[in-house]
Amino acid sequence: MSKSIALSLVLAASLGLAACSGGSENAANVSANASENAANAADNAMLAAENAATNASNAAENASNVAANASANAM
Question: How many beta carbons lie within 10 A of that of residue 18, not counting itself?
Answer without folding.
Answer: 19
